[in-house]
Write a structure and sequence with these properties.
Elements (H helix, E strand, L loop, with lengths): L14 E4 L1 H4 L28 H5 L2 H7 L3 E4 L3 E3 L7 E7 L5 H14 L3 E6 L9 H9 L46 H16 L4 E4 L10 H12 L4 E4 L16 E2 L2 H12 L19 H12 L4 H4 L3 E3 L8 H4 L4 H13 L3 E5 L27 H16 L1 H5 L1 E8 L2 E8 L2 E8 L5 E6 L9 E6 L1 E7 L4 E7 L3 E7 L1
Parallel strand pairs: 1-2, 1-10, 2-5, 5-6, 6-7, 7-8, 9-10
Antiparallel strand pairs: 3-4, 11-12, 12-13, 13-18, 14-17, 15-16, 15-18
Length: about 475
Amino acid sequence: MPTSFVPDWVQDAVFYQIFPDRFAQSARVPKPSNLEPWDSPPTTFGFKGGDLLGIVEQLDYLADLGITALYLNPIFQSAANHRYHTHDYYQVDPLLGGNAAFRELRDACHSRGIRVILDGVFNHASRGFFQFHDILENGPYSPYLDWFHILGFPLYAYDESPHRRLNYVAWWGLPALPKFNTNTPAVREYLLGVAEHWVRQGIDGWRLDVPTEIEDEVFWPEFRRRVKAVNPAAYLVGEIWGPAPDWLRGDRFDAVMNYVFSRACLGFFGGESLLTRFRPGGFKLEPLGACAFGKRIAEMLALYDWPVTLAQLNLLGSHDTPRVLTLFQGDTTRLKLAFFYQMTAPGAPCIYYGDEVGLTGGPDPACRAAMPWDESQWDVGLRDSVRRLIALRQRHPALRRGDYTRLYAHRGIYAFGRRYLDETLVVVLNNSDQTRQVAVPVRGYLPNDTVLRAVWPASDATTRVIRGHLPDLRLAAHAGAIWASP
């Protein structure tokens, strides 16, 4: 299937991931009494009361940053703060403001040109999901037995005694997450109907949770067909932590959450400061030099057809990983350079809420802290750097749509070119601890005597290709530079 089926708008987008309970509160959404204090450390089960109208009221903040698309963690009715335990797929959680708040958020985002992607959890539901609850109530007499994988009665849904063996199939054996039986036609139709419904309601795509857990060759192609029939430009991105060429051939997803990109960036930009004791998604983290980083990036760029590569969701961190600044042991210079590469690399960058102001935290739940709205708690220099990098990406089509040519990788220096139509950019990163002067080889990429102007940092400086090199480029430690022609 041709890769023209990848939505064209995605490669120009800058995404921002929001964990709805933790981003912002609105006084317009009534709150229950037993909420955790907003600025207290996050806990596994506690709620802080963030809501969708809180997001609406912070759209000025997001627009100023340069965000053009939101990815929201689950918003449907649930008894979990993360809402991956869905009770009702047709109702937005009342703690988030309900369906009316969703409509207001959708309209407010679309009026600003901001797309909205929802998190779809279609592998499993919750103990509170109506059909599973019916089985709990009626046992073998329930008309919904074939909606789940039931192994015996009575169901031990709330008995977590060590000697008690779970007698229904659940995601990773967690009793709170009974797994759907997608072999049942009614289940398939229900889930596909949910997918269609919210696209008709105006969402711009789905992020699909643990899609590899649905071991069904027909389900995801049918999911794509049904969603794209409603909106051909809907973006479908799967949570797959490794290379996924079989999933991105045009019959299932448009992209994946690009954890391959994330691990390469963490390894290179974290370097010797990288905390390697954590294994996000079960994958090992390790420091990388410039050559090893270049090899990882080359392997990543070879995975997919180019239009698919440009649509990958390029993240540094997410709700399932420790905060990047924590992994970098608080080194914001390293984080700034990681953001620099994220905004200049092929693929759609995605910022996890709060990373731009320096939020820290280890694995879940620590990585899901509430967004601080007291600006005295922000790293304003970091946020300003991210804002300017996003603006740079939006000014230069070559950073969004251009090809990619590796030019140099040695002793902490990594350089590459991006070219689109008549614009050519040379991007150079110094990831060493010292100011470095480097001659970047461009023979075969740019002809001799080509004049390039500095666009990052912006200045009136120029340089010229001499004997196949850009000579005497001077870069501060952990800094990047971009030169443009014409």
